[in-house]
Design a protein that fits this description.
Helix content is about 70%, strand content about 0%. With about 100 residues, the chain is an all-alpha fold. The longest helix has 30 residues.
């Protein structure tokens, strides 16, 4: 699947390191969860890796993720799951209040 990313976004991303994201307490669980899901699920959809460079990137990301202790990874997944669930409930409540203002 190829989703185009604007060049200005790619240029801006060069100023942000993965380390910056992992060191951010507010982003860390999302990054761990997101990268884990991306690496682990990319093969489940039958998506073939396009190049050796991409295979190497996946390998490096898997190695990095494996070096994060299990407890931290589990806490990250649990936190993001809770936050997604909370967001869904909050959104449903908001839409219900908006539809029935009385």
């Amino acid at each position: 699947m190829s989703i185009p990313i604007p060049e200005k976004v790619l240029n801006a991303s060069e100023k942000i390191l993965l380390r910056d994201l992992l060191e951010s307490p507010s982003l860390r669980p999302w990054i761990i969860s997101g990268v884990s899901n991306a690496v682990n699920c990319s093969y489940e959809n039958g998506e073939a890796l396009l190049s050796e460079d991409e295979e190497l990137l996946h390998f490096r990301l898997r190695q990095m993720l494996r070096s994060i202790d299990y407890k931290t990874r589990k806490e990250s997944f649990d936190y993001t799951k809770q936050m997604i669930h909370k967001r869904r409930i909050d959104r449903a409540n908001y839409l219900q209040r908006k539809a029935n203002p009385c």
